[in-house]
Design goal:
Structural class: mainly beta
Order of helices and strands: EEEEEEEEEEE
Largest sheet: 7 strands, mixed
Strand content: over 45%
Helix content: under 10%
Length: 115
């Protein structure tokens, strides 16, 4: 079955960086686009970034452009999210997502940006 396991979250000061990872299994990872979403307390889940199956195509929400970078390693079945210049408003649970006949989600990893 499809499994997505996020890691790399934690507490970071404003202006700091974190790198999130999502290890995928149970499907042909190299054939599917992958996405990162986030959900802040009291807010709806929102799309952060997406990457095509080959890794050549990426898209970002406007608020993340220039600060976040999505990448993937198809040999390791892993997708990454490098987050730089973090702001308190980036505090959220970050989720990995793949759509394969239906949406699959990991359990998320918490990112807290605070001094």
């Amino acid at each position: 079955q499809v499994q997505l396991v996020e890691s790399g979250g934690g507490l970071v000061q404003p202006g700091g960086s974190l790198r999130l990872s999502c290890a995928a299994s149970g499907f042909s990872f190299r054939n599917y686009a992958m996405r990162w979403y986030r959900q802040a307390p009291g807010r709806e889940r929102e799309l952060v970034a997406s990457i095509g199956a080959s890794g050549e195509s990426t898209n970002y929400a406007d608020a993340m452009k220039g600060r976040f970078t999505i990448s993937r390693d198809n040999a390791k079945n892993t997708v990454y999210l490098q987050m730089n210049s973090l702001k308190p408003e980036d505090t959220a649970v970050y989720y990995c997502n793949v759509y394969r006949r239906m949406d699959y989600w990991g359990k998320g990893t918490l990112v807290t940006v605070s001094a």
